[in-house]
Specification:
mainly alpha; globular; 111 residues
Amino acid sequence: MLFAVAADMVVVIHFIWILFIIGGFPFFLYLNSTAGRILHLIALIITIGMQITHTICPLTYLEAFLKSKGHGQHSVYPGSFLIEKLESLIYVEDVTLGIISLLTVAFLFIV
């Protein structure tokens, strides 16, 4: 049970990371935080680098590891509704991923 809960927490953290990548710059611009914008730029560069090199996010590996350790501990339903929906937003299909990658790289050149 503990591994399943930890895997769910990793999914939530992964989703928060994606929200930070998408909305971090406008948020820190609104707050007029130079340090926040620099932190966001570093995070954006790392994320774009991972997309360009087709590197799988370490959070994905951690989630898979925790789910494999927690396998067989579910009594009736293998997951929660919220986690299932977050996973569908995080792990998109290849076509959508290509579009997201292009938009992310284009955003970097705009910023």
